[in-house]
Amino acid sequence: MPFHFAGKNYSGNAINSIKEIKSKKTALTDQYNVDSKGTAILTRDFTGLKSYSTILKKCLNASAEEIQTEVKQSGLKGRGGAGFPMAIKLETCRKTDADQRFIVCNADEGDPGAYSDRYLLEKQPHAVLVGMIIAGFLANANVGVIYIRAEYPESIEEINKVIKELIENNLAGDNIAESGFSFHFKMIKAQGAYICGEETALLSSIEGQRPEVRVRPPYPAQQGLFNLPTVVSNVETLANLPYIIENGGKHFASIGTSKSSGTKLISLDGYFNKPGMYEVDMGTSLSVVVNELGGGFREPVKAMHIGGPLGGLVPIHKINDLTVDFETFAKEGFLLGHASVVCIPEKFPLLLYIEHLFEFTAHESCGKCFPCRLGSTRGKEMLQKARTSDYKIDKQLFDDLLETLEIGSLCMLGGGLPLPVKNALDYFKEELKPHFQKTT
User: d(Cα 177, Cα 393) in Å, to the nearest integer?
Assistant: First the structure.
């Protein structure tokens, strides 16, 4: 179980050294497995500041149109969950008339079981920050805001250190490398609201407003931070940009599949024999991730919740049917999302698990739309009542509730909740059947 002490995070074997940590006699660095299968883009060893300087100068010495072509050819899609083409976001922002534009790095990693953003912020900070500068060059934006969850104190410390290093080496700030392009960073420490992972709520939070989801359109690339064009992108997406500039868009597109190019980071939880952070080429069999990289399960598991609380609930027997890419997951009725993997052990009641999903949504809802705010609470109440009494849930009523959440919610917090619940109803009918009314 992770714990926090004196501004530092600890997990894993640190539990055995609590007395030493509290006495401040020692400082332990968080340790977890990091490995790759295929192309190591985000898990490769740090290539040095000089290498990133070369990449950045290569970008700034070219035209924005030339670099935009490379990003377009790469086929890079957003790694935060939606899988939206990065080139379109950047181009839309650049072409929207304005005197000021922004790049916002969404590092408010709130999905349970996800720590790929934390890994990148702490172990590959140069890739993230140089990626933001490249994005700024392409979008004609000269301000980058990096919004990091407060629970990541080491990430905040490392990012601040590298920003200072970039400025001191004329790789950030005014007139970068004498190119005429300027880019300034602003680091913001989040306050722990899950909804701020949603891009428009995040923008409201940066503005000092209550973090509520905004109605779209207009989209942030047209009207975002302070109503100005803004590219909001997640950490992993931005960290891929230096590699694309260094090696070319066609090379990046040659990795992975025709529709899901590049690699994907996957976070494996403690139910695996080898939990940790793994990078695989898109299109890699999920079986390879589970059995080869993760070393299989340390105890019987009946399902894996992949992609955060709003991701798909994958039963164990579907492992061999899935490959790590957006299209296969969608075709099979799941969602790759952030690619965090949380296991549900055989002995854990699935009814209690989906009750928890409703409770989590109710607690984290911004409250702006009725379907999410009220629907999640009603769902939690129905499931809790069925679990603790003889009450049987009306299946039609429950299906209507899921449909209302799915089509009526303003964002994916309420709109995405039905997916894992439907997966549970489809694949675990026998376990859940006693809690529902019999149908004729």
Answer: 65
Cα–Cα distance measured from residue 350 to residue 373, given in angstroms and rounded to the nearest whole number: 23
Q: How far apart are CA 379 and CA 47, in angstroms?
A: 50
User: Using omega within 30 degrees of 0 as the cis cutoff, is the peptide bond preceding 220 cis?
Assistant: no
Compute φ and ψ for 147, nearest 5 degrees. Answer: -105, 105
Rounded to 5 degrees, what angle do the CA atoms 127, 156, 232 make?
A: 60
Range of the domain at 5: 1-31
Phi, psi of 82 (to 5 degrees): -80, -30
Q: Is 0.90 topped by the overall pTM?
A: yes
Please tell me the distance from the alpha carbon of residue 399 to that of residue 401, in angstroms, as a whole number: 5
Domain boundary residue, one of 253, 268, 285? 253
Q: What is the pLDDT of residue 248?
A: 96
Same domain, yes or no: 52 and 196? yes
**How is residue 27 written in tokens?**
């400082």
Question: Rounded to an integer, what distance in angstroms lies between the CA atom of residue 396 and that of residue 393?
Answer: 9
Question: How many whole angstroms separate alpha carbon 379 and alpha carbon 362?
Answer: 9
Which are the contacts of 232, defined by CB distance < 8 A and separation ≥ 6? 104, 106, 199, 202, 203, 220, 224
Instruction: Give the per-residue pLDDT at 31.
Output: 74
Residue 366 forms part of a structural domain = yes
Rounded to an integer, what distance in angstroms lies between the CA atom of residue 378 and that of residue 367? 14
* 30-67 pLDDT tens trace: 778 999 999 999 999 998 999 999 999 999 999 999 99
Query: Which of 7-16's residues contact partners 24+ apart within 8 Å by CB, and which partners?
Result: 7/153, 8/153, 8/154, 9/151, 9/152, 9/153, 9/154
Q: Please, how many CA atoms are within 13 Å of residue 155, restricted to the half-sphere of its CB?
A: 26
**42 and 55 share a domain?**
yes
CB atoms inside a 10 Å sphere around CB 28: 15
Q: Whole-angstrom Cα distance, residue 84 to residue 231? A: 12
Task: Tell me if 277 is assigned to some domain.
Answer: no
